[in-house]
Each structure stands twice: as C-alpha cells, then as structure tokens.
Design goal:
The protein is α+β, with helices and mostly antiparallel strands. Helices cover about 45% and strands about 20% of the residues. It has 6 helices and 6 strands. A hairpin with a 2-residue loop joins β3 and β4. α1 runs parallel beside α3, α4 packs antiparallel against α5 and α4 packs parallel to α6. It is flat, with a radius of gyration of 18 Å.
Length: about 190
C-alpha cells in the first residue's frame, strides 16, 4: 500500500523537537516526509513556506481533516494524504512518537527501534518537566508558579538520581531510550 505520510512540525516547538530526533535516529526519511512550518507570532498561526496541497497554514489542514472544532491548530501533526483526501493520524506528540517507534507504518520491520521504558518515567518527564517549564512560565499567579516550580525541581532531582544510578551516559544505561528523547528538548532549551 502506497502511503503518503507527512509530519508537520515547527522548529521552535519542543514537542516537535522530540519527534524530529526520533525521525532522524530511525532514519524515517524514506517512509515519512517532514515539513517545517513557520510560526507567525502576531496571529499564533503556523504557516507553510509554500502551499501544501492548497493549504497556506495549519488551520487549513485542520479544516481539510474535518477538525473544525479545534480551539487552536498546533504542531506536530501527522497526516496521510492519499487520493486527494487528507487524514489526520494524530496531533499528539506522544502518540506520534509511539507510532514511529513501532512497526505500524513501515513496509518492512525496523530493527533499530529506540529502547522503550515504563510509562511512569515518561509521565514524570512529560508532565512535570516538559509541561512543567510551561506551567512555570505561564503561571497566572504566584501560587501557581510556586506549585509548578516545586513539581519541576522535584522531577529534575528524580531524573538526576536516575541518571547517576544508570552508570551510563543515558537515563537507562548505555543505550538511548524514549525517556532521553522526551527529556532532551526541554533540558537543551534550559
């Protein structure tokens, strides 16, 4: 079956960054086409450098995929464009990452999948660190900031302990894992 799979990303988005890392590590360029959109900060839009199947921005993609009740179209977006029909597979980075790191979309099984880890560790990184920095930065009051900050630094302390105990360069030892890919975009931006 001929699939026309596209990953729509923004280079400024940390959730896209983890997908770009996995995309490169798994060498998915023959399976999935990646397209970088540009942020238009004044309007909060994601814009294509050149029209993508008659769409100028991400909102038009969401409309073509019948997602008109969405508050604000966000990246990343994983779509299948086939026979002039556009299907949104997922716009949740965590789900897309799981799909990429499985054999779901590949014509032949991938042998170089990234080491998986338990959901508890991924939840800690995703909720308390990845989302945590945003909860601090966009806190609406001091109490919200203090609560988010405590969770963030507690999670960082836990991650630091895991890294020390791993005896390797990665969170789970000598081999890179999905947890490392979750963590890197936030830590490198810090």
């Amino acid at each position: 079956e001929n699939k026309n799979l596209f990953l729509l990303v923004g280079s400024t988005c940390p959730w896209c960054h983890r997908l770009i890392i996995l995309y490169e590590l798994l060498n998915l360029s023959n399976e999935i086409k990646i397209i970088f959109l540009q942020p238009k900060y004044k309007t909060g839009e994601w814009i294509f450098k050149k029209d993508f199947h008659n769409c100028k921005n991400l909102k038009e993609i969401y409309i073509k995929c019948n997602l008109t009740k969405t508050f604000r179209p966000t990246v990343p977006v994983f779509i299948n464009y086939k026979d002039r029909e556009m299907e949104l597979i997922s716009n949740e980075s965590r789900d897309i990452l799981k799909l990429f790191n499985s054999n779901t979309f590949y014509s032949s099984p991938k042998k170089n999948l990234i080491k998986d880890c338990d959901e508890e560790l991924l939840d800690l990184i995703n909720e308390d660190i990845n989302n945590g920095v945003y909860k601090c930065g966009f806190a609406r009051n001091q109490n919200a900031y203090v609560e988010a900050s405590k969770k963030l630094f507690s999670a960082l302390t836990k991650i630091e302990k895991i890294l020390q105990d791993s005896c390797g360069p990665w969170l789970l030892g000598d081999e890179i894992s999905i947890a490392d890919i979750y963590l890197f975009p936030t830590i490198i931006r810090w």
